[in-house]
């Protein structure tokens, strides 16, 4: 019968059709794949246990001589395989196998599902006509199903396992001839090895030859075969006699003991229950040609006496470590084909892994503001600097980096590509800095509106550094203040800094002429000068860029006014300054610390800080330390007054006399009460998340609290507290001394004047000191913040209080929002009024639906330079409750509109709030960048160039911006041709 007739016979057979309908098992092999695999199919004929070698006998397959009609009679009934898995199988009689002079080698076993599907197969005529012998097949263990692609005509190969036999003895062949089915639709059920069903990821089933990409992917993603004893037959590992003792495998080899005592699982160790051997599955799959020839990868290892030693040596070999890297890259889908790990790309993978560790080291050092290079970086140096020493530390747990360092050390002469030179460090740092800046610029341009914060300072090298901070709202409605650039201002005049600002914006394509809405600087003439200041020059090209004098600087000037304008307070702070200067000596500080241990043994040790004009909370900190450690201060001065040094003794005695007076104690408590309102306000004003409306509202609240202190009962309470303080500390003066009224003598011919009104010491203090100080600070706040109130004329309608009043029925003026039309482009005033009124009326309902965060519950950043000094932490928590922050801010309202998706419904209102929140209240972010500058450019690093300083500043100040390491490596590779060849995949 020819091929055409035989195919027609198979298709027309009703029995075959009924079987095909009931068939539910599928295979992932196509007919063409099955034919190809068929040509590579052989059977294991003999297994030598001693030499562990397989002798394969291959003979040509021939078509059975039995006719098809006789063959059909020999098909038995369906049998059931009794084992870990039960399946209905159509099998062939063993007599047919004996009659067919066909020899089979090891089958292709692919564990991929819970069943054993057989692929579509070749026609028997095809096998007969092809003089083909079949080689060792591919074995794949990838899931819980075992499709066995063994296409020998319409025959299925079935292997059954025997418990104590070798591989050749394990395999017993059964063949089943399916009838009346076309080769394209042939799918058969097969029973396989019990171990193969229970352990489909058995490493012995994996061939050492090339697999298809699909088959390899299934095998590679399987976990290692690591059965426990109770998973095996007889619930224990097989034993064998080795030497004098009977030994077996133990599951403790699945783990590696670290130096710390912890155990880490070896994911590369794979035990084969079918052969009772241990394999390295990683080297078997991902190893190089040489690596696959290792015994652990090729044939397995079963010398249980020396297994621990063999595993330890194997996992430390470079070939195994390279295979581990390839496995990790493959599993993470960074490379999808196995050949990419070979040849040149294998070296690229190693180089990229090295660069990743170098990037981590550079980011750590830059974000910790540490120096990179040492004085002596030679190979014989004991200390090669922070960077190289950190690389050595990282190499202890990274074999690739360790191997790279060994190569560098062993090579004589100069290496061309080490990735560790100062040039490479600077290149990578510049790449990382530009990536951070690129993300910032992308957000700035996406916001559409922003404001500038600019300030200058002199670094340790006497260079004028200009810091440019940009404030904007991100896509989530949160305010961000980001460092864009820090440049050397060779010309510190207003025009020079304006030209530098224009150059920066032009270089980074920042369209400040159209999109800048506000600017905030300090009170220097070069910044806010009305003729040639930066503020004026910016407004000439962009009139809408309103200027805000930094609130924190203004508040600091208010404090200075309070300290210097009144005679009593000026003398008081002069005495304090003398005390601080006197106590800062090393021996005197030691005496002060010892006195604190005596009088305050269970409290924190404090240090008296120096007054500073730029550290805005320093006055309050000094007052807090003296109040809480008063006895220790007096004890220190008393001991120093007994010194043999005349200058020390005299100064200590004078300070002791001044500080023990009742006037000093009263002024101390008065100024401490004043700073309890101004210091929390100063801390709040330094927050980058505060908006302009909120800041001015808090200033008004502070002025109101100070005005309430002017009441007589508050002054009386202060005097009572001063009296109690003097008594608690054992002072001689517990009240003001009485002064005799001076009566002017009347000469002859003069008229007698009015009698002098007698004032008690307490009333005299209230009039001359208490009320005068409060009047001075209140008037200073009003006058110095007057310029900011003009900006708030129309913005005040967006405050929480005005929204509540509109909700309660108050009307708005007809001319409201007129200023906004000249400030915000393309805004419709009439529509804004309608949106504002509508939103105000339903504001309370919207507010009750969200959880508004209260500002005074947030911890606001202070001066970063104070981190390394001791201070009284109790004063911070004590004063935070004295500043009244708004319940809901403009930023909260923007988030409210975002949360309800009302931006499109209230476009003009949202735009107005966005502009209002973009206005910076302070330039404290520049001050924070200068704090980083002092930590980075120190006296020992004073020669640092600007092209290195700027990326270090960006990485340190904007440390919360994530960096994609792969993108950074690609950018670094594009800087030279040599790096392209070493770091980019081919």
TrEMBL record:
Superkingdom assignment: Eukaryota
Renumbered residue ranges of the record's region Disordered: 857-883
Composition bias type Acidic residues, residue spans: 862-881
Single GO term (MF): protein dimerization activity
UniProt-listed InterPro entries: DUF4371, HATC_C_dom, RNaseH-like_sf, Znf_TTF
Ranges where the TTF-type domain occurs: 254-351
Protein name: TTF-type domain-containing protein
Species in which this protein is naturally found: Macrosiphum euphorbiae (potato aphid)
